[in-house]
Amino acid sequence: MDSTTPEALAGMRETASPATLPADTLKADILWHVLYSLGRDNERPDRQTVFRALALALRDRLVEKWIASQRAIYAKSSKRVYYLSLEFLPGPFLRQNLIALGLEKEARDALTELGFTLDDVAGEEWEPGLGNGGLGRLASCYLDSMAALRLPAYGYGIRYAFGIFHQLIRDGQQVERADNWLRGGQHWEFERTHYMHPVRFYGSVREWVDEQGRLRHTLEGGSTVMAMACDMFIPGYRNDYVLNMRLWAAKSSREFEFSFFNTGDYIGAVEKKIRDENISMVLYPNDEAPEGKELRLKQQFFLVSATMQDIVRRFRKKGVAWDQFPRKNVIHLNETHPAVAIPELMRLLVDEELLPWEEAWYICVRTFAYTNHTVLPEALEVWPEELFRKVLPRHLQIIYEINRRFLHDVRRQFPHDPGLLARVSLIHEGEQRFVRMSHLAIVGSFSVNGVSAHHSNIIKESIFNEFYKIFPERFNNKTNGITPRRWLRQCNPTLAWLITEHIGTEWLTDLEQLKKLEPYAESAGFQKAWMEVRLRNKQKLAEYIHAKNGITILPESLYDVHVKRFHEYKRQLLNILHVITLYNRIRRDPDAGIVPRTFIFGGKAAPGYYMAKHIIQLINAVGYTINTDPRVGDMLKVVFLQNYCVTLAERIMPATDLSEQISTAGMEASGTGNMKFALNGAITIGTHDGANIEMLEHVGDENLFLFGLLSHEVEDLRRQGYNPRTFYETDSELREVLDMISGGYFSPGDPHMFRDIVESLLNHGDRYMVLADFRSYAYRQQDAARAYLDQPGWARRSMLNTARMGFFSSDRSMGEYARDIWGVEGV
Ligand code: F55
């Protein structure tokens, strides 16, 4: 019988439910979905159609396991974890889901029969870019680990119609293009078109007294938008457990459909609908510098209000009293972005459930936990009071009441420090008043954590020191981690296989098992196999670079990679100054370069961040000059890969020799790229910052190149009066580099083009201490080059980096959160 006929397909589907399907029916399922879900001829489906059908076939399996997981959580009456984040960066789902479901081989076989390879089909997926960078990616690694640990958890976020912009490099400059990721149709999610919550903004608060003489608050007027749930599934690694990432999409409330009958203003009514649906239209592309726009505040409340309704609905099903709420629920705030959840829960409890304030507050502070991800002053979120009052009038009142009671307590605890009140107040008073979201988050949570040991200390000792004195028991550290399923097993299958051959598969769920590789570090045979895998990965990246950028690079050259968001504190500028230094050495003496190098850059700059964009342009200009200079040849290449994203990171991590983690000490809260590189066997060159410091403790200082000022030295130097010019005057190599940039060497058509970059260093204080760290960086780079010449030594270092990354698994991080903060266990 022809297996593509509808009858044959339907018959196959009837024989078994998807979860128990024998593997060889994956092909039948694909063809079934091609015909019935996608409405296409399934005789010769194209690649994109096959991808979508395969995704749908996997979604069938995921949804069954999800239902079963939900039932288990309900049956056990488990305490639930709600992870609220304005950003998730899940990356492509296909391979992850196949790995988690144990269907990789079956999928390959099915696709082969259909005339495709898994690589081709996976290449059709467009990743959901619903985050900016580290914070969003961390949230997704955490969901993966929560699923692996079978935690009763839910991710909650926004389903932006446009994710982080697509970056193009045109004439050396960043150009932004809209990321219309939904255009391809949604194959992983379920849109719950009948499942909506109303979310209310604006309006005014009416105070009144009810029959029992209680003071009541009711919001009147304002406007309502509906939040529609869109569910995406996150499977645990081969454990039949599936979590839900619920993303809200804004839909106009249905009233408009009737209102135009009354007013006759049809077009006006439609315009209102469009305005409403704008709320979830676009992700704000700023990281570490929030944009204080009304729409952004509405997005935050939109997520919070819809999510709180979901949480309360689920809690109510159990029919237990409100005072049990914190025993049954914990709400985790990923940064302050969803912190308006605190006054929202207070509003629900006080205004709607009519609980006394004290009881409501007692519940609140036992429910919320907050993670801080940055100490940059410009990244701390504040909202103009007038804007807050306009959008969320009742919430502002509640914040004022929280603040009044809090300051009252502080005054009693610290009667002799009158200035303290203004410093810890939830309201910044000045010409303009601002709501300080980090103060709200700290006061309203039972746990405040940083994301690396170093960062958590900085929080306690400096930015939140006064809160630490008030609430010492709230502060704790949870060092970030990354999921080994995506960041080794999936992105580097050949290395994963080599590892598994030697130590088995347990490392996939217990990354500390990688320690078992250590004895092989001295084995010449293993070293050889290790380096062969790495070289093949490097060849593949060379092919990609050739195809995308038209640049030929030597796979044997040292791949020195700097990929992450562009920000001055991450110091891509320091890197390019060093590149130019090497270039000058080669120009002076063509044999000077001790080892051929390929510098690879990638990353997006916030569209409004002039200096970050300008540095991208400088890197491209330097790259052009060096790559076309015949004196340089293969000794040095500079590549800028456009549109750095999860998909691209997966290509880059396995092919990197040297990982650049060179932030100004004290400024990178943790970093997670650093962990991804090292897990794949790259060696780090980095500063004493964020999680680099813990990585050093784990891998040992012969296997990681640290350099530069320590955070307290950065501070001391600033206090003493840092003068960057002295470095310019005393370091002739550095001076030559800066003179070339400001003299137009890399911009002959416009010699002034990059002058302002040099100005920022020499005349505007070099806020990020680029010049102060330049020389020690250049020395350390020399150490790295020398180490690379000793290939067996490099192989050993590389293996030991991988072998000692066990601690940096997000399973370890999530285990700590579950035990120490949330008080939950696996289902
Ligand atoms: C995004 C939007 C706003 Cl408004 C503010 C900050 C961000 C953001 O993306 N921050 C961010 O990515 N922070 C990073 O978090 C990582 C995960 O904890 C850290 O590893 C990294 O050091 C930190 O910069």
TrEMBL record:
This is Alpha-1,4 glucan phosphorylase. Belongs to the glycogen phosphorylase family. Its cofactor is pyridoxal 5'-phosphate. CDD domains: GT35_Glycogen_Phosphorylase. One of its GO terms (molecular function) is pyridoxal phosphate binding. The modification N6-(pyridoxal phosphate)lysine is found at K676. The keyword 4Fe-4S does not apply. InterPro entries: Glycg_phsphrylas, Glyco_trans_35, Pyridoxal_P_attach_site. It comes from the Bacteria. It catalyses: [(1->4)-alpha-D-glucosyl](n) + phosphate = [(1->4)-alpha-D-glucosyl](n-1) + alpha-D-glucose 1-phosphate. The keyword Transmembrane does not apply. Keywords: Carbohydrate metabolism, Glycogen metabolism, Glycosyltransferase, Phosphoprotein, Pyridoxal phosphate, Transferase. One of its GO terms (cellular component) is cytoplasm. It holds the Pfam family Phosphorylase. Allosteric enzyme that catalyzes the rate-limiting step in glycogen catabolism, the phosphorolytic cleavage of glycogen to produce glucose-1-phosphate, and plays a central role in maintaining cellular and organismal glucose homeostasis. PROSITE patterns: PHOSPHORYLASE. GO terms for biological process: glycogen catabolic process. Its EC number is 2.4.1.1. SUPFAM superfamilies: UDP-Glycosyltransferase/glycogen phosphorylase (SSF53756).
